């Protein structure tokens, strides 16, 4: 829309595809093709098969996928609740207090996720909160890692929110709790669903902290992908990666539909 000439549009599209295909699309295409490959010794696979998907369908992969979905769902909802509460609280603070709140919530993403995993492992390996060896410590780790994104997304939405709606409701005698639940949060619903989708996607792909914490009975799918490739089963790992991407994309599309309905309601 910013380029009016036909030649300029063609130039923009050419540059876009020249950057998009090799940098973004080609790696995903390679993973997709590898998931069907029986062997690959040249530029292209020399054989195609569905055996990798049949293999993972009868193994532990369905349980790993369910583990990832449950972990991401619980962690994203917990992160959304904590991030929204913190963003609402930060809005009432002065500039210095808001900066302190921003620093506290952005700290987990400012350090490597393996550091977060190690800190949780040390903190929750002794009573009174003995979570080491349980699925709960994995969910806590994912929640800590993605809460910053929920906090940042909701905080940005609050900054754009017109205060006239809240002031009008208050001037009509509405209590603060009523204004929050019936005015502010409904206006924030599209941003809340977007933040939840972002947290879910990030949790589905988290690996570094999970590798330090997961118990044998709670193995998320990214750990299975890493384990398969580490054993040299690259094609099986590619099939697992495709399943992970497809499951994440399906949930994100469902959330996008909910967000669209909430926006135009």
From TrEMBL:
UniProt keyword list: Cell inner membrane, Cell membrane, Membrane, Transmembrane, Transmembrane helix, Transport
Topology relative to the membrane: Multi-pass membrane protein
Family: Belongs to the binding-protein-dependent transport system permease family.
CDD domains reported for this sequence: TM_PBP2 (cd06261)
Residue spans crossing the bilayer: 12-37, 64-88, 100-124, 130-151, 187-214, 234-255
Pfam families found in the cross-reference section: BPD_transp_1
PANTHER family: INNER MEMBRANE ABC TRANSPORTER PERMEASE PROTEIN YDCV
Protein name as annotated: ABC transporter permease subunit
ABC transmembrane type-1 domain sequence ranges: 65-253
Compartments it resides in: Cell inner membrane; Cell membrane
Superkingdom as given in the UniProt entry: Bacteria
InterPro entries in the record: MetI-like, MetI-like_sf
